Amino acid sequence: MCAVARIVLGITGGIAAYKACEVVRLLVRGGHDVLPLPTRGAERFVSAETFFALARRERPADPYPHLQRADLLLIAPLTAHTAARLAHGLADDVLTEAALAHRGPLLVAPAMNSAMWEHPATRANFETLRARSVEIIGPSAGELAEGEVGWGRMAEPAAIVERALALLGEQAPSTLAGRRVVVTAGGTREPLDAVRYVGNRSSGRMGVALADGARRRGAAVTLLAANLGVPAPAGVEVVQTPTAADLEREAMARRDADVIVMAAAVADYRPAAAGDGKRAKSAEPWHVELVPTVDVARALGSARDPSQVLVAFGAEQGPDGLVRKRAMLDDKNVDLVVYNDVGRFDIGFDSDDNEVTLVSRDGERLVPKAPKPAVAEAVLDEVERLLAQRRR
Ligand SMILES: Cc1cc2nc3c(=O)[nH]c(=O)nc-3n(C[C@H](O)[C@H](O)[C@H](O)COP(=O)(O)O)c2cc1C
């Protein structure tokens, strides 16, 4: 619990700067000491005087107020421009200097037009920030300043303040706090010879988002990483599991974890034999026999403890997919199946977004298309609900 927290609030140059007034007001109402740091860009939208008046303080005479200790650095709204400056460690104004000098949690609320949010440069910058354990809230889908509807709308001030208070330790602890959580992520590669393999297109983004989310909720997280195409999050134990056999061995060694989330795409088949060296190129066909691998979800399900929560991901294609996933609950003895339709090109494998249906014994819930970290939050909420049921 943090009594009066000192919060440095960066405000950058987007239309949503006006919503930062409400963020200041809510934080001050909660009894916190807020130092507003609007950029020159932000002052084109709302004057610095407005923020200082709401924060009930004078504009500081000290030229270095931003370099003093703060319990939290919050930037809302965060423009694409300042996200790029943060990702690259630039320090060309008071806010970015403060960010480089700050050693506590950093929470950012991006707001921008959807094309800017989806640009590869912006995505890469946010990946960098996420890998550095920066907390990112939103953006959400909705009506944008230009009148179009899309991703890029800043999270609501009340939600931003709630997350800020959670980071300051002012919220009821999550049921995941102190729990041992294992997340599998990525796609296994089954060797054909020393250089070739049978693999799949999974990048590991979904599993990484789940591991990061569980860590933020206070869990002790182990990530079983199968050939990740994105950086593993900071603050979690990472165990490399490149093949299905590696993943099975490491998962079974941790089968007593409180929660196991199997988000990795584990090969169903592997070559029966793998050559030691590189097979020489030849004009002859190469016939490969594929044999089934061990079904890790089934193995964990049959070795499980009833107090544990087991989550399996199911990639399927076509209208019968959901029916097969419902059957998986009993067939593999898991508590939650996260079903995604890999027949769609805009979600799932190797994409930034996902749309899933959460299938449990209590029913089904659609999580509409959203960036994977947002989908991960919905999955973890469901895990918490199931864990709470176990306690009753
Ligand atoms: C009317 C207007 C609205 C803007 N809205 C946004 C926005 O919502 N998000 C964003 O990333 N940039 C937006 N920009 C661009 C930024 O203001 C610009 O990149 C600026 O350099 C940001 O500087 P700062 O990040 O230091 O505040 C907007 C620009 C204008 C003129």
UniProtKB/TrEMBL annotation:
EC numbers: 4.1.1.36, 6.3.2.5
Entry GO CC: phosphopantothenoylcysteine decarboxylase complex
Keywords of this entry: Decarboxylase, Flavoprotein, FMN, Ligase, Lyase, Magnesium, Metal-binding, Multifunctional enzyme
Cofactor details (free text): Binds 1 FMN per subunit.
Keyword Signal carried by entry: no
Cofactor(s) required, per the database record: Mg(2+); FMN
Pathway: Cofactor biosynthesis; coenzyme A biosynthesis; CoA from (R)-pantothenate: step 2/5; Cofactor biosynthesis; coenzyme A biosynthesis; CoA from (R)-pantothenate: step 3/5
Region entry Phosphopantothenoylcysteine decarboxylase, spans: 1-180
Domain Flavoprotein: 6-167
Domain DNA/pantothenate metabolism flavoprotein C-terminal: 176-385
Catalytic reaction equation(s): N-[(R)-4-phosphopantothenoyl]-L-cysteine + H(+) = (R)-4'-phosphopantetheine + CO2; (R)-4'-phosphopantothenate + L-cysteine + CTP = N-[(R)-4-phosphopantothenoyl]-L-cysteine + CMP + diphosphate + H(+)
Described function: Catalyzes two steps in the biosynthesis of coenzyme A. In the first step cysteine is conjugated to 4'-phosphopantothenate to form 4-phosphopantothenoylcysteine, in the latter compound is decarboxylated to form 4'-phosphopantotheine. Catalyzes two sequential steps in the biosynthesis of coenzyme A. In the first step cysteine is conjugated to 4'-phosphopantothenate to form 4-phosphopantothenoylcysteine. In the second step the latter compound is decarboxylated to form 4'-phosphopantotheine.
Family in the record: In the N-terminal section; belongs to the HFCD (homo-oligomeric flavin containing Cys decarboxylase) superfamily. In the C-terminal section; belongs to the PPC synthetase family.
Name of the protein this chain belongs to: Coenzyme A biosynthesis bifunctional protein CoaBC
Gene designation: coaBC
